[in-house]
Amino acid sequence: MSVHIRRCRAAIGFAVAMIILLSCGCARQQQQQVITEERRQEAISLYVDALMLNELNEHDEALEKLQLATELDPELAVAFSLKGDVYQATEDFENSADSYETATELDPWSFKDFFNLGKVTQVMKQFVRSVQAYVRACEIEPEHYEANLNAGKVYYHLKEYDLAFDYASHAKKIDPNSAAPEIILGDIFEVRKDHPKAIEAYRRALERQGNKPEILVPLAVAYLRTGRYEAAAELLDTSLEMDPNDFMAHQYMGFAHLKLRDPDSAIISYETAAQIEPEDWMARKGLGIAYMIKANYAGDKALKQRGLDQWKMSLEYKPDQPKLQMLLDKYSK
Question: Fewer Cβ atoms within 10 A, N terminus or C terminus of the chain?
């Protein structure tokens, strides 16, 4: 047999062997694909079961199905998304947030998951994590009212007032008839000490939503800061009719009465605030001032001592009050 023939036979044999090897490899790959597809179909079936169980408020059973589904298919984004929903419904916000976060990693264009991630982390006061989610949600759906509104709220909590203003302003543009953006804008103007603009924003909110404590009280505070004490007292009185346990409203009412030279009414308001919230250092400080004013008018040492005692309590709750400490030292002599 010639060398040439032997070489041809060897080449043919090698080619046949390679074809057989490749065929085996393709068969195994096809088998693996079949297994993967079967697992995915099973995972989807479990997800559908969980969806129905969640609709029936069978949350534990739904989570069991979803756990199995995500084990079978760790890239099934909708399963992690539904996990987030179920955990959110049961107020397990930490697990809800983690589930939504995984869903967003698997599907970076899921508005629903970014938005819900923002919501549950906002509840947990994880504001940096929350605002990142809301900002991404706004990138996906720029005209979504609630996403912009909540981004504004969270940026306000983070003291990023310029960004809070931008998002709240855009929410207002999306829904000009809503009160909520006006409240945020009013709060931002107050931080900037632009009290006239804050008053305008709060009044627009009042026109849109009516008498609500969450609007009446900040508007009253803005009035107090601009010297409109009677108007402030009137708003606070209306608010306290709706929410008599709002210790901050009682505290502000005490301040309004002091400015209106009515220490007796101020004492009643401050005492009520202190009863509702015993560690309200501002109420204790104001109550001390009111007692000292009355003591000065009447020359009553007992009232003076009451005032000093309230100042001492205020300093216990908030020691860093150098001016109040000076007053206490001065009048304790």
Answer: C
For residue 111, give the nearest of 160, 86, 145 by alpha carbon: 145
Residue type (1 letter), 287: L
Q: At a CB cut-off of 8 Å and minimum separation 6, what does 40 contact? A: 72, 73, 76
Rounded CA-CA distance 86/56 in Å is 11
Mean pLDDT by runs of 10 across the 333 residues of the chain is: 42 36 39 65 90 93 93 93 96 97 96 98 97 98 98 98 98 97 98 97 95 96 97 97 97 97 96 95 95 90 93 95 93 86
Domain stop point among 85, 110, 141? 141
- Residue 57 to residues 54, 85, 195: CA-CA distances in angstroms? 5, 11, 48
Whether residue 135 sits in one domain with residue 179: no
Same domain assignment for residues 114 and 44: yes
Predicted pLDDT at 11: 39
Tokens of 281: 């250092």
Task: Report if residue 30 sits inside a domain.
Answer: no
Is 168 found in the same domain as 95? no
Total residues found in the chain within this entry: 333
pTM: 0.82
In-domain check, residue 48: yes
Of 141, 163, 198, which residue sits at a domain end? 141
The per-residue pLDDT for 215 is 96
Q: 196: which residues sit within 8 A by CB, 6+ positions away?
A: 226
C-alpha torsion angle, residues 16, 19, 24, 28 (rounded to 10) = 180
The CA angle 120-126-130, to the nearest 5 degrees, is 60
